[in-house]
Amino acid sequence: MIxxxxxxIIACEEDTILALSKxxxxxxxxxxxxxVVHNKYRIELNKHRQDNRKLFEDYVLDEARAKEILLSLETxxxxxxxxxxxxxxxxxxxxxxxxxxxxxxRYGFEGEKTVSLYIKFNKLSHAFIVIVxxxxxxxxxxxxxx
Length: 146
Known about the structure:
Layout (H helix, E strand, L loop, with lengths): L5 E6 L4 E6 H16 L3 E3 L6 H9 L4 H9 L6 E6 L9 E12 L7 E12 L5 E8 L10
């Protein structure tokens, strides 16, 4: 049953149906925020995450502002859950959120602009959060509860 409080999500190519309520996502997000407040997280900026690096290069964005954005996530920003498609990590579930934020371009004279972010993360078993994606959306997200 798909309704106001239950949203079914097809997780990647596996066609696995996960039923998540708004309360499930709220609880998960609360755990994520607790980890972020205690600095138990990292944003992936390695060579495989060029889109994440580009966000920090293109906009005036530091670690404190990124943390503020993460802490501002709400249940209504939730889009979907996906299976991790990287070999050896298929058991992990990645939560996808979108957030519109105002950011200042690093170069030029455009001033602040609204940027739609794509934020995907994984909460590891020891309450550490890995922010896999933290970059501009390439395409509009569909939100589960909006």
